[in-house]
Amino acid sequence: MMDEFSFIDSIRQQFYRQPTLMKGIGDDAAVFRQHTQDIVTAVDTFVEDIHFSKNTMEAYHVGYRALAANISDLAAMGASPAFYLVSIVIPESWSERELAHIFTGMKELASLYKMDLIGGDTVSGNELILSVTVIGYADKGKARYRSTARDGDIAFVTGTLGDSRAGFHILTSEGDYRDARYFIERHQSPSPRVEFAKGLNKLSRTALNDISDGLASEATEIAEASQVTITIHDDYIPTSKSFNQFPEDLQHKWKLYGGEDFELLGTVSSSDWEIVKEIADETNTKISKIGYVTVDADYGGIFLVQHNKRERIYKKGYTHLK
Description:
By secondary structure, this protein is α+β, with helices and mostly antiparallel strands.
């Protein structure tokens, strides 16, 4: 295993893309300067055999997906990604080649958004732990919050739901599956909806959340933060064309509770819905109206309309401390 300083040298960028960066890797901390936009930051930690496994992911995908998850958080805040920092706990079971591939996965995704790696930390441990911090910029006053849903809003999602969980199922369950590569790539290499979220800057108000822990969970977070009720129509939830090959109970579970699709859930005034559809067209983003927002005694609640029945559903997505 190479020493810490050699490892840092191996992942150091040869040049930086962000003009706001004053000092990158090489001192005790990085320095960047910003006067015209709001700074948005997020962090996620990924633990081997909890959030990822060598059985279902190559090292490249571990890095790619870890950074994608964080970029999706920035998208949900209406922010453009700029920088990332990586702290990694390295066990003896991971080779130098695998570690290099983790950072290759992150670097290739980062290059799509002109992101710069500006710091981090390395220590040894018993299992691989990857903690990624991202920093982005939002136009002043345009950061998006969960607490801004209002009575009469339309609820919408981007993309199709349940794909990532279907991909994981294919990787861990023997069988013949249609479009297997598509579902696996949706699990291993998700695409954050940055351009679409940036386009929403045209709107004065929209509530956003990224679908990392499942639609029911993310909708509940918006409903609770905004003190509203969200009703979702099961038939309106978008799924991929070959999603129906899976058992109906798994389809239901994955599209509502599966998570890790890293699509966006939002609410917007009905008067702005046509603008949202135009933004989706401009950014080549699939978008679907899935329900509506009301204010009533059940505020904070999520209801599902299925088979002509409206029933309350609960926050049962992925939780990290169960």
